[in-house]
Amino acid sequence: MTRTDARQTSARQSERRSSLRALRHRDFALYFGGNVLSNCGTWFQNIALSLLVFRLTRSSFWVGAVNFAQFAGVLLLAPWAGAAADRGDRKRLIVVTQVVATLTSGALALAVATGWGVLPVVLALALVLGLTTAFATPAMQAVLPALVPREDLGAAVAMNSVTFNLARAVGPVLGALVVARLGLAWAIAINALSYLVFAAAMLLTRPAAQPRHTGERPRLVDSMRMVGRETHLAWLLAVVAAVSLSMDPVNTVTPAFATRIYGRPDTFVGILIGAFGAGAVAASVIPTRERRRPERVIAATLALFGAGMIAFALSPSLGIGLGALVAGGFGYLSSQTRATTMLQLEVSDAERGRVMALWSVAFLGTRPVASLVDGGLATVFGPRAATLCMAVPVVAAAAAMAAGPGRRIGEALERAQHR
Fold this sequence. Notes:
- This protein is mainly α.
- 82% of the residues lie in helices and 0% in strands.
- The protein starts with a helix and ends with a helix.
- The relative contact order is 0.16.
């Protein structure tokens, strides 16, 4: 092996180091720890709300409607949320949204504890929480480059995805246990406390100076035009949207799977969601950046995700269903992380808040529509048919990435890496 080959091999090995290296940086470690606890608390509340609404209505449609309320704000407020993340102080914006979320979840816990946790109240407070999510998400994504050096940004993006999925593996199981032992109100109250923990962690961080925008207010439409010109960025956003759409059954129809398909108590939904999260956490040890033919890697992980969801829909037994969810979770995190990392690396800091607002629309803003469609399909045709239908977007995305569009995105990314 020549010296040049050795250097190239060493560089590739360095690139493939565990994403855990991002935790060496104090500010990111604080962000990561607070975000993990907050996301675990969110799953406590998600489980509690799903079970509360399912017990009130016995309808997957209304479970989907609550999910719609929680994410509708992301879809409606993206233009203002992205501009706020680019023009305002991202750290301050995150702290303020977490405090508002604390108050809202606290009110919801009190309503449930006092018998006022009826469907209209739950929907209204879920909608308010969605408004805080709309403004927090672009700022949380855009602040990452200020917490780590550029060479560790890919690792930070991957670990940021791990916060969601580590919480997805642990939160539903613990949340179901809290609901079973202490009740729905306690699970929601714990989530309220978790928002405060994240706010405190962010107050302790010292992000790098954020470039200040002067002159004309930044507009989301400008970033949309830029993404339209850079078609590989549009394809990355399309991948994120497809992943989000096909993941919805894990949130919306698992209560029906637990009770109607597998004959278990409704709190067993925590085990089902936890299996999906366990697969996602396992995927975090896989390298998050590939220099050669990235479209093939994304196509393969999308295909694995789709296969896992189809197998879950058709599973004849609980064991096969759990195994399918683990496989689906692995493919889900691998594809979503790669697409998000590439997107973060390809945009300037001046555009980052607005582009990540587009990311939040793709990842979170699609969920309101997905939840309503998924819940409606499950109500009319059953949870198996709904899950099969919702797998179509990710299967189509895998096929596209393996064909002509995928080759073009790979070529564009390779050209960008050499600029």
